[in-house]
């Protein structure tokens, strides 16, 4: 090879190696327009698709290692920016998402063999996934979905809620940097510098976005459903909690307080109403008070309803606020020891019961027996198929409730968050796809099932 040809080759190699690095330090996964972000994510996916599974594992391991020291700061920033929930519980949610979201081990291969040959069923990626994250659970949703979607082999365009913009963009950039250092591919996780409703609409309509994963309210899920794309949608829930006369009342009381007060009742899986058999209601409430609940008088309940649920709808300014903040908003005296949860005995048709309110105020409804409790729970849950909780020692009743309610999560004798792997078995998820039927999501949810057939071979039976 001539000297001039060698110099040209060296310059070309150096150019190819150095040019991406300049762009990489500039973008860090954050772009000025939806088109730029999605195009970059699509190019990243094409490269990622050629990588072995061990590359995906390396990225996920690095995410777990490098984000772990940042979880506390992310929780504090999330609580401060959104003005909802508390940093202690947000840290626990972040940690659950980081530690307990499955990676590539979720993508199990199955095979069938016989005289006709062999069939493999395997999971492969969709491409660029457009993921909408909420303001109620911003960082934990981004962590959870990043691990699941990258494990499945996809790249991700995140559409974070504008109310959680700063902490979301910081986290997205951090995850993209971690992925780049692990595999050399930039823009596997992207977003735009100014997340807006219009940007979300553009993302949903973009031809290079293969699938939508929407974690939010019914409005945004409905918008996604009109896109013509495959949608994995996590919608609203209004989880009822049943307590019958056979329940362990001490444990039930503690579990209910823990679940309903967690992050000031922001999680969509949290107990939103308590339906209790009348014969044990008094004892249950006494136990709940011993675990930090404050029982409101009827007059206080009316005053609180007026400010928290004006015209029957949740006051957004009070969503995710502390029990003390709710009391202050209603001009009700706050006890010297701040309550963990507010509780009030109400009628079955009270807005506290029928509306999802995302506030640490748990309405309690008395019913004569289990049959009435289940009938009311079905009415309250409204066929959303999201979450329900029940405390009972009667296995037949537990099974009947599970079959009747048909919720994606049904927790027996535990706090609601056991249903997402916190204090209970199973993996963690913050995208619970109820409207579209996938239920608790993991890596395999974000992959397509493929069937590979080999005829007349590989059967040794």
From TrEMBL:
Q: Where is the Aldehyde dehydrogenase domain?
A: 33-289
Q: Domain of life here? A: Bacteria
Protein name as annotated: Aldehyde Dehydrogenase
Q: Which CDD domains match?
A: ALDH_EutE
- Which organism is this protein's natural source? Enterobacter lignolyticus (strain SCF1)
- Which Pfam families does this entry report, sorted A to Z? Aldedh (PF00171)
Q: Which UniProt keywords apply?
A: NAD, Oxidoreductase
Kindly indicate whether the keyword Oxidoreductase belongs to this entry: yes
What would you give as a GO molecular function for this chain, any one?
acetaldehyde dehydrogenase (acetylating) activity
């Amino acid at each position: 090879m001539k000297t001039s040809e060698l110099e040209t080759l060296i310059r070309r190699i150096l150019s190819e190696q150095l040019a991406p690095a300049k762009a990489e330090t500039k973008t860090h996964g954050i772009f000025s327009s939806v088109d730029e972000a999605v195009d970059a994510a699509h190019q990243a996916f094409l490269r990622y698709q050629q990588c072995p599974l061990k590359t995906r594992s390396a990225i996920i391991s690095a995410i777990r290692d490098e984000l772990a020291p940042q979880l506390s700061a992310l929780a504090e920033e999330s609580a401060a920016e959104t003005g909802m929930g508390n940093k202690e519980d947000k840290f626990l949610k972040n940690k659950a998402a980081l530690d307990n979201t499955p990676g590539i081990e979720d993508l199990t291969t199955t095979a069938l063999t016989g005289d006709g040959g062999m069939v493999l069923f395997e999971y492969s990626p969709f491409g660029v996934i457009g993921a909408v994250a909420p303001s109620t659970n911003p960082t934990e949703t981004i962590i959870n979905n990043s691990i699941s979607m990258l494990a499945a082999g996809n790249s991700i365009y995140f559409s974070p809620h504008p109310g959680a913009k700063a902490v979301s963009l910081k986290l997205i950039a951090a995850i993209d940097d971690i992925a780049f250092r692990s595999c050399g591919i930039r823009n596997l996780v992207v977003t735009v510098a100014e997340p807006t409703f219009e940007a979300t609409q553009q993302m949903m309509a973009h031809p290079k976005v293969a699938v939508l994963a929407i974690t939010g309210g019914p409005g945004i899920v409905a918008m996604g459903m009109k896109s013509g794309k495959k949608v994995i949608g996590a919608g609203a829930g209004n989880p009822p909690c049943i307590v019958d006369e056979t329940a362990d009342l001490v444990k039930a009381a503690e579990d209910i307080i823990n679940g309903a007060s967690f992050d000031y009742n922001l999680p969509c899986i949290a107990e939103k109403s308590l339906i209790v058999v009348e014969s044990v209601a008094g004892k249950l409430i006494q136990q709940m008070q011993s675990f930090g609940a404050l029982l409101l008088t009827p007059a206080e309940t009316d005053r609180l309803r007026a400010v928290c649920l004006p015209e029957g709808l949740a006051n957004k300014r009070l969503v995710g606020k502390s029990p003390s903040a709710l009391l202050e908003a209603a001009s009700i005296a706050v006890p010297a020891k701040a309550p963990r949860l507010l509780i009030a005995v109400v009628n079955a048709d009270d807005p506290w019961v029928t509306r999802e309110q995302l506030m640490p105020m748990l309405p309690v409804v008395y019913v004569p027996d289990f049959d009435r409790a289940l009938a009311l729970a079905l009415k309250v849950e409204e066929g959303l198929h999201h979450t329900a909780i029940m405390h009972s020692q009667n296995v037949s009743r537990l099974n009947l409730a599970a079959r009747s309610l048909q919720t994606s999560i049904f927790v027996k004798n535990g706090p609601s968050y056991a249903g997402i792997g916190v204090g209970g078995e199973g993996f963690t998820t913050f995208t619970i796809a109820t409207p579209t039927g996938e239920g608790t999501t993991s890596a395999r949810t974000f992959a397509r099932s493929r069937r590979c057939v080999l005829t007349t071979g590989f059967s040794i039976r």
